[in-house]
Design brief:
The complex is a heterodimer of chains A (355) and B (272). Chain A is of the alpha/beta class and 355 residues long. Chain A folds into two domains: 234 residues, 3-Layer(aba) Sandwich (Rossmann fold), CATH 3.40.50; 112 residues, Rossmann fold (3-Layer(aba) Sandwich). Chain A is built from 13 helices and 15 strands. Chain A is globular and about 70 Å long. Chain B starts with a helix and ends with a helix. The chains are: A alpha/beta (355), B alpha/beta (272).
């Protein structure tokens, strides 16, 4: 063990909470919902001895607006929830995106629609990557596939949020949030950039700070829209993240993120034992989506198999990326059911017979 | 004549400009022309708010939270840092600000639709946590910005665009008295109801707002200042008639006065 390493066995939700404290989070606002209540529990337990605020709000609607206020005041701020609660937050997220407030948001995805189930799901992919709230906006969406990444992406999330003055969403799921794994905390240096735009009181040395998402003149609104668009283009150019596994000689490509990527990783090993050359592309950023790399891979594989814990959502982005070059099919389970690698492998073999 | 010329006090003596300044617009007010209708209480409330901020010398340390409603553009008028909140969420936004900047003076400025309908939950819980902020609540019994729909505070029988035959309390609910609702909460430190329809009332309201800022130093809970105001345009009245309506109708149901005041013990530190 290196001197600056701290190795622990933790749940994903707890690792995320611990990482937030280590990342210099100033404030967390949240509301209990399964399967992520450990975050608020962990933070309220740690609060007396460490320098940050954790506050239980009266609803997710209130928590996201507290995030708005705190982010506007220049704080490093975060909230987390799960699907139904994340839905409640969408109005606030739209305002935060428009007012360009940096913050870290987390959705530990459970099965839906409606009150659904408390079991893991990836059914909120559309909501995470296509908007969720009203208006033209984007979130940077990070998809962890391990407890380690739930911790690591907190640091990354805060930094990206500050860098682009944009909300960052970590889209996890009930399995990764609840399962325990080894996690290493590196003693990282915390970078906090100055936020001269924050509402900290109008001192004579600066113009006053106004945090707003109201631009009632059409020309002003469009100007803001174009400014956001420019920012989103920069993010698409600079921040695409993904992992390639055994793609070098792959004839068939799995595309999967988060928990599905872990299952798919096992499936490609099973396939290779049978002599089938399968590889995996795991998007780490769901937005910006690694479309360029998928488009290139489409030139060398025979087909793509998208595995998701939903009815088929990311497959639309994969098809757009591939643009008809190869056949793209989907396999998914819903309702909180996690398919075994053998089950997926069987479906995959059926798929490659159609090629 | 531009705003600056209009608002510069002048006194010409023997053909020469000499300044004989007895009163001027608070420099906390910006030069932006107010969008409020003639006779509207919002303009008065804004001006006394600006005057109090100036007189207390706290302009550098104030953060305001504007609502959705007629005062949605409040941030254009007061020369301080502002955040514009989503409809009803001003007290949640203010909570986020105050918890991260506890030494700043934080206030919300909200109307009845914002605070007492869509934002009721946020209002109650903000006061219940005793957030150390001031809530300024403009109650004119109508949705002004969307042009005159029934508000939770519309009086019984009041004709609005969504209660065209008058508010039938059996079908549409009763006008809600928010000050009385929040006052019993332990987190409420100071609750008062004032108006701005007469010069005397304006002076009292100004004092209440001053208290609302000063009490934040004590950190003992929320100051809730209701201002019963008018809406000449949507009440379909002249400004004078609307002020008479406040006196004769609104104040009967929403009586003026302190509802919860801090004890002398509570204010000891402030005197020091």
């Amino acid at each position: 063990m290196k001197q600056n390493e701290d190795i622990r066995l933790m749940k994903g939700n707890e690792a995320m909470a611990e990482a937030a404290i280590q990342a210099g989070m100033d404030a967390y606002f949240g509301y209990p919902i399964t399967p992520q209540s450990e975050v608020l529990e962990y933070l309220t337990r740690e609060m007396p001895n460490r320098n940050f605020l954790a506050l239980q709000a009266e609803s997710e609607v209130a928590s996201i607006n507290m995030v708005y206020g705190a982010a506007g005041a220049g704080a490093r701020v975060m909230t987390s929830s799960s699907s139904p609660g994340w839905s409640l937050m969408q109005e606030g997220v739209s305002y935060i995106a428009s007012a360009q407030l940096p913050c870290l948001l987390v959705n530990v995805n459970r099965g839906g629609p409606g009150l659904g189930t408390i079991q893991p799901s990836q059914g909120d992919y559309f909501q995470a990557t296509k908007g969720g709230g009203h208006g033209d906006y984007r979130l940077i969406v990070l998809a962890p596939n391990s407890v380690q990444e739930m911790a690591d992406f907190v640091f990354l999330g805060f930094e990206l949020a500050d860098k682009y003055r944009n909300p960052v969403l970590m889209l996890s799921d009930g399995a990764i949030g609840q399962m325990m794994e080894r996690v290493i905390f590196h003693n990282r240096e915390i970078n906090k950039i100055p936020k001269p735009w924050a509402t900290t009181g109008k001192t004579p040395d600066r113009e006053r700070s106004i945090i707003t998402s109201l631009f009632i003149q059409p020309e002003k609104m469009e100007k803001v829209n174009l400014e956001l668009l420019k920012k989103y283009e920069a993010i698409e150019k600079n921040e695409i993240r993904y992992e390639e596994i055994m793609t070098e000689d792959a004839e068939y490509l799995f595309v999967a993120y988060g928990l599905s990527a872990r299952i798919s990783h096992k499936v490609i090993q099973l396939a290779r034992e049978k002599g089938i050359k399968a590889g995996l592309l795991r998007p780490i950023t769901l937005w910006p989506f690694p479309a360029p790399v998928l488009n290139k891979l489409a030139d060398k594989v025979k087909g793509m198999f998208v595995v998701e814990l939903n009815a088929g959502q990311m497959i639309e982005d994969v098809r757009l990326a591939v643009n008809g070059k190869v056949k793209v099919e989907h396999y998914g389970r819903m309702g909180g059911i996690i398919p075994s690698p053998e089950e997926v492998e069987e479906q995959f073999e059926k798929f490659i017979k159609t090629l | 004549m531009d705003n600056k010329e209009l608002t510069t006090p002048q006194c010409i003596v023997d053909g020469e400009d000499t300044y004989d300044l007895v009163f001027e617009k608070s420099h906390v007010m910006t030069d932006t022309r107010l969008h409020y209708c003639p006779g509207c209480g919002h303009s008065v409330a804004h001006q006394i708010l600006a005057e109090v901020i100036q007189e207390l010398g706290i302009q550098d340390n104030v953060v305001g939270v504007a609502p959705v409603g007629c005062s949605v553009f409040a941030y254009d008028y007061l020369h301080i840092d502002w955040q514009e909140a989503a409809h009803g969420r001003a007290t949640a936004v203010a909570t986020g600000i105050k918890r991260c900047l506890p030494d700043r003076y934080v206030f919300t400025y909200q109307g009845d639709g914002d605070l007492a309908a869509i934002g009721t939950g946020e209002t109650i819980h903000c006061v219940n946590r005793g957030e150390n902020i001031m809530i300024i609540f403009i109650n004119n019994g109508v949705y002004g910005m969307t042009s005159g729909q029934m508000a939770p505070t519309s009086l019984e029988g009041m004709k609005t665009t969504t209660s065209p035959y008058g508010r039938d309390v059996h079908k549409m609910g009763y006008p809600i008295k928010v000050s009385e609702l929040v006052a019993p909460l332990p987190g409420a430190f100071y609750v008062t109801r004032q108006t701005v329809h007469t010069p005397n009332a304006v002076r009292k309201t100004k004092k209440a707002i001053e208290n609302g800022f000063k009490y934040q130093k004590l950190g003992k809970g929320t100051s809730f200042i209701e201002i019963v105001s008018n809406c000449p345009s949507n009440w379909k009245m002249t400004p004078v008639q609307s002020n008479q309506f406040i006196e004769n109708e609104m104040l009967k149901y929403y009586p003026v006065g302190d509802i919860k005041v801090p004890s002398k013990e509570d204010l000891k530190e402030l005197v020091k």
